[in-house]
Write a structure and sequence with these properties.
Helix content: over 70%
Distance between the termini: 32 Å
Strand content: under 5%
Radius of gyration: 21 Å
Number of domains: 1
Largest sheet: none
């Protein structure tokens, strides 16, 4: 990349897009878990037409691959990735336990050994383990959304291997990426096609918390990053137009062909979504800076919302079924407040010490 291309790459709206994606996840989970009657509502389907999790995976592939290229030192790369994930994750676990305790939940059949195993899992990457003593709190899984954090960590780990074995030769980069995308796309298609048949089997559940069913989304992000100049030439400053085209296309598939929306979208929606996300990231590129001023609470919003949802379900009990809008509003506002606190006092402080970050945290600037 030339200096001009690097400047084009760096100035984008990805922080704003991640925030929108995180809010989409929170809103979707809130209305589903409070039984707000929007399942058949077109607005509900509109929210699911741009699902947050695939959007996160695409953006991760795009940005993480560039971050590794800029600083391929494995030690620094690992430190930088750890600083992005773990300080906020650990603080979130502490807050989650406090919420459960303050709610008055009595921890039936509590086991110190089980609590220790669970804590180790929640503080590392084994987020799919759920202890029996939490079964009666909310939906029984305190922070089920953390499954994607484990997936992201696997993406981080495998990225250096992908570069070493497949992306070392620039002339073969696109060919190798294309082959990998096709392979993992078939795994994704198989995974969702047989979900109804295998969803209760342990091996299938374990496969669902590995990177393999979702890796093609990450690799598409890498492909866009490696071909940045080409996509930028044709997609920059076309975000609004592509947004309406994509929504129209998604609703045609949904209404006429009953195509599934949400996190399980197929490639027929994911590839257009990737183009839309890239275009929005590089359309009116100062939007993110003007609105957010380099503050990124999207990660906090994502990791805090489910403990808050579960606390609301436990505390509000039957009240939430007749006051759905108020319940969703309480969840949304509470999540934003916790995420904002986490960003300014935990995450931002940690990110400031990243080594040779491609997008460094600006110091000594007011929010």
């Amino acid at each position: 990349m030339t200096k001009s291309n690097i400047d084009q790459f760096r100035i984008n709206n990805f922080d704003l897009l991640r925030l929108i994606a995180a809010l989409q996840v929170v809103f979707g989970h809130s209305i589903e878990l409070t039984d707000l009657s929007l399942e058949g509502n077109y607005f509900f389907q509109f929210i699911h037409a741009i699902p947050g999790v695939p959007l996160f995976f695409f953006i991760s592939g795009f940005l993480i691959s560039k971050s590794y290229e800029v600083n391929p030192n494995i030690k620094n790369y690992a430190i930088n990735r750890g600083l992005r994930i773990f300080p906020g994750l650990w603080f979130c676990f502490i807050i989650s336990i406090m919420l459960v305790y303050l709610s008055g939940y009595n921890f039936p059949n509590f086991s110190l050994r089980e609590f220790s195993y669970w804590s180790i899992g929640q503080l590392s990457f084994i987020h799919f383990y759920h202890p029996e003593f939490m079964n009666d709190f909310g939906i029984g899984v305190l922070n089920g959304s953390l499954w994607t954090i484990g997936i992201e960590l696997q993406f981080y780990i495998i990225t250096p291997f992908i570069y070493h074995f497949f992306l070392g030769n620039e002339k073969k980069t696109n060919r190798n990426l294309f082959i990998l995308i096709i392979i993992f796309l078939f795994i994704n298609f198989w995974f969702y096609h047989f979900r109804a048949d295998y969803k209760e089997l342990l091996w299938y559940k374990l496969l669902g918390v590995t990177f393999t069913p979702y890796f093609y989304m990450f690799l598409v992000g890498v492909f866009f990053q490696k071909n940045f100049c080409y996509f930028y030439k044709y997609l920059n400053n076309k975000g609004i137009m592509l947004f309406f085209l994509y929504i129209g296309y998604a609703f045609i598939l949904y209404c006429l062909l009953n195509v599934k929306l949400g996190n399980g979208i197929g490639p027929w929606l994911f590839f257009p979504l990737a183009c839309l996300v890239f275009s929005l990231a590089y359309s009116s590129v100062n939007c993110s800076k003007k609105l957010l001023r380099h503050q990124d609470i999207s990660y906090g919003i994502y990791i805090y919302h489910m403990p808050i949802v579960n606390t609301a379900i436990y505390l509000f009990s039957d009240w939430r079924f007749s006051n759905e809008i108020y319940t969703v509003t309480i969840i949304m506002i509470s999540t934003i407040l916790f995420a904002t606190f986490s960003w300014f006092f935990i995450e931002k402080t940690s990110l400031a010490v990243k080594k040779k970050a491609f997008f460094p945290i600006e110091k000594n600037k007011s929010p």
